[in-house]
Amino acid sequence: MRRNRPAVNALIACAAFLVLAIELFPIAITVVNGFRRDVVILSGKPFELSQLSLRSYKLVLERPGFQKSLVTSLVVGLGSTTASVLIAAMGAYGISRFRFKGRNILAYSFLIFRMLPQISLVVALYLMYKFLGLRDSAGGLIIAYTSFNVPYVIWLLLPFFTSVDSSYEEAAMVDGCTRFQVFFKVFLPLVAPGLVVGAVFAFINSWNEFLYALILTGINAKTAPVALNSLIGSDILTWGQVCAGGTLMLVPVFIFTVAMQKFLIRGISAGGVKG
Amino acid sequence: MTSSRKPPIKQGVEARADGGAHPSLTRKSGKGREGAPLLFLIPALVVVFAVLLFPIGFSLYVSTFNWPLSEGMGPRVFVGLGNYGALFTDAEFWNSLKLQLGFVFVALPVELLLGFGAALLLNREFFGARVVRTLLLLPVFFLPVLSGITWRFMLQPRYGPLSQVLVSLGIPETSWLGNPGWAYAAVLMQDIWRMWPFMFMLLYAGLTSIPNELLEAAEIDGAGYWKRIRIVITPLLTPTIMTALLLRLIDALRIFSEVFTMTEGGPGSATLLFSLYTNKQAFTYMKVGMASAMAIFLLVLSVVFAATLVRKNMSLDVLERKAGNR
């Protein structure tokens, strides 16, 4: 948009990289301290990089609770992702391929559901789960995560679904397929890229979630964020282990941010933004 | 002003004036296939009902009781709107609202300014521009829990990296998170650090969609850089800015994980934000009825803002039009 003036551009590049360095400083702190030994961390020389080791990683992974929590996070994340993408794909198909009374109201309601604060639901969910025996189970957490992922993924999928021409589906229906056969055999393969985007966002939402996991689980179905938080609760200062565990949990987030660049804006703004 | 950006997609709209993207399918569904959309939507509606709407209704019910967390702690007593009344005379409740307002009136404007500035600055090509634009977004997706923990670590006296940097700048050693004022400032700081790139991301996207011709026309008319920002860019970006602010506002009202791991609401009640206080009412004071009243209060507030956002700034038609014109 602007004519290239080399000097100005060089200056802006420097400023940009400086801002980026400040912005990434806390993340770098987490990653680096995962490799520093606790004695070095507590010595009061925060930027001394001697005696780097994998000891904290070994220690944190040897904690039975933490290892299990990583597995639980993975199971809950994948379970909720599968359920929410399937349910949301059907819902988005219903909204994008049919014209029915209340269609707009329904679509916008899903958008509002997406923005409900979890703290407003978690107390009631706690009482319900206790009554139903769902507390402290991976299944219960999968259901809870699916509830906020479904409205989210529906809106993420809508533009993908609308952009697919319906002539394939019409042809299949002329050939005698039922609506559901058309959906599963013809339509879903066509929107596979959209489903991948929806799945990745659903997974990251679940992976990063803390409040539901904190309130709705105890010992059995503790997820990694809750386990990480309980590491700092103990009296012994084990920042190395906290940082090592945190870095492990960051791996999917890094991959996500770089791989999903194109879709990040749509992901956080729900799409359909006017203007 | 805004309307001048719409003509290129007008044609696509008229072709679909019936609102239906797929006329032949619509016709079929008209022939006694009315049940079909419902069949596809049933699973989503069941989930939404069971895990969103039912809990809301249940909260509303619980909020009218003096309801202890577990049965052994005494009977449930119907109190009508008593819990809501008790909230309004509760100093902690007002304190949590006040702390929440700090987020709205301090953190959000700062995030907006930083985001707007960065969007203007980075809206050009230079060596590494793409890398900067992508990596800037990492904090937004950084696990909130880990963000809180990292800031807690960085601010530890004696060995915390950030507190050591501050010491080396000549600022006397303090227990930052042990002091009510500083702890609140640190919580705001954490939020600004994590979320200004969110503003940047949305505003940058809005900025790149402003047609060059408009800016060039303004330049030809003699408008300098700052004047172009003031009279062309800012008005065109206003809808995007409103969207970004409302999204952040709704988000700021329910902030929990970062602050819970960073300060646990302390010292005292210095960072006991609304959601943390709700949690405390339910699981420390064991007053589920009070917590539910708070839950409903926040829910109403959030739905009002969300509905405003959806009505003013979101559109199913725009989304479908954009998708159809790809």
| CATH level 3 topology of chain B | MetI-like fold
Low-confidence stretches of chain A: none
* CATH class division of chain B: Mainly Alpha
Unreliable parts of chain B = 1-32
- Strand tally of chain A is 0
**Which structural class matches the secondary elements of chain A?**
mainly alpha
- Listing every helix as H and every strand as E from the N terminus to the C terminus, the arrangement of chain A reads HHHHHHHHHHHHHH
**Share of helical residues of chain A:** over 70%
> How many H/I helices of chain A?
14
Radius of gyration of chain A: 23 Å
Strands of chain B, total number: 2
Please identify the top-level CATH class of chain A: Mainly Alpha
Proper CATH architecture of chain A = Orthogonal Bundle
- Spatially, the strands of the biggest sheet of chain B line up as 1-2
Q: CATH architecture of chain B, please?
A: Orthogonal Bundle
- Strand proportion of chain B: under 5%
Order of helices and strands of chain B: HHHEEHHHHHHHHHHHHH
Q: Could you say which overall geometry of chain A the principal axes of the C-alpha atoms support?
A: globular
Identify the biggest protein-protein contact and residues per side. A-B, 115 and 126 residues
> What separation lies between the terminal Cα atoms of chain B?
24 Å
CATH superfamily of chain B: MetI-like
Q: How is the secondary structure organized here?
A:
The complex is a heterodimer of chains A (275) and B (326).
Chain A lengths: L5 H28 L4 H4 L13 H8 L1 H34 L5 H11 L5 H14 L5 H25 L4 H8 L4 H12 L1 H17 L2 H6 L7 H10 L5 H21 L4 H6 L6
Chain B lengths: L6 H9 L7 H8 L4 H28 L2 E2 L10 E2 L3 H7 L2 H32 L6 H7 L2 H4 L2 H11 L6 H8 L11 H29 L3 H9 L4 H29 L3 H6 L11 H10 L4 H26 L2 H9 L2
Describe this structure in words.
The complex is a heterodimer of chains A (275) and B (326). Chain A is an all-alpha fold. Chain A has a single domain (55-269), classed as MetI-like fold (Orthogonal Bundle). Helices cover 74% and strands 0% of the residues of chain A. Chain A is built from 14 helices and no strands. In chain A, α3 packs across α13 (239-259), α4 (64-97) packs across α10 and α12 runs antiparallel to α13 (239-259). The longest helix of chain A is centred in the first third of the chain and has 34 residues, at 64-97. The radius of gyration of chain A is 23 Å and the shape is globular. The mean pLDDT of chain A is 88. With 326 residues, chain B is mainly alpha-helical. Chain B has a single domain, classed as MetI-like (MetI-like fold, Orthogonal Bundle). Helix content of chain B is 71%, strand content 1%. Chain B has 16 helices and two strands. A two-stranded antiparallel sheet of chain B has the order 1-2. In chain B, α5 packs parallel to α10 (180-208), α10 crosses α12 (225-253) and α11 runs antiparallel to α12 (225-253). Chain B starts with 6 loop residues before the first helix and ends with a helix. Mean pLDDT of chain B is 84; it is low at 1-32. Chains A and B meet through α1, α4, α5, α6 and α7 of A and α2, α3, α5, α6 and α7 of B.
